[in-house]
């Protein structure tokens, strides 16, 4: 089962003086226990569909043309778009970047756990000026020149010896 779940619980009509009325669909996205909501117009779904066709075989998308804007027809479109998103998720083990971008999901390269062990890159989080486990103890009469040289080179590369 995929860690991404989507639903389209509702839609609303928008009317303004600049352009013809249109419908906005509310999308709930749940990923790794975190939920966020976004809104998309049908034209954005259609653009996504065209882009997805370049990399995968997406499911059928509800018809672009709706003859009447009655709630029953819009409800059918809502259900169709919800099924469309859910089918893309179910049919693809790795979700395309364009799909994750559409849902405003940050995407991370997915590396199976068995492969990741040898490819870890480490970044220092905390820096010690001296390693207490490598330095000779105060009781040691003779210091370890090799260890001190390595520590000096790592932690004080620009410092010249006296």
TrEMBL record:
Biological processes annotated in GO: protein transport
Transmembrane segment boundaries: none
UniProt xrefs under InterPro entries: PX_dom, PX_dom_sf, Sorting_nexin_PX-domain
GO molecular-function terms, A-Z: phosphatidylinositol phosphate binding
CC per GO annotation: cytoplasmic vesicle membrane
Keyword Kinase (UniProt): no
Keywords, in A-Z order: Cytoplasmic vesicle, Lipid-binding, Membrane, Protein transport, Transport
Annotated localization: Cytoplasmic vesicle membrane
Gene3D superfamilies the UniProt entry points to: Phox-like domain
Top-rank taxon, per record: Eukaryota
CDD domains hit by this protein: PX_SNX22
Record has Cell membrane as a keyword: no
Pfam hit, one: PX
Coiled coil ranges: none
Residue stretches making up the PX domain: 1-115
Topology within the bilayer: Peripheral membrane protein
Family the entry assigns: Belongs to the sorting nexin family.
Protein name: Sorting nexin 24
Lineage: Eukaryota, Metazoa, Chordata, Craniata, Vertebrata
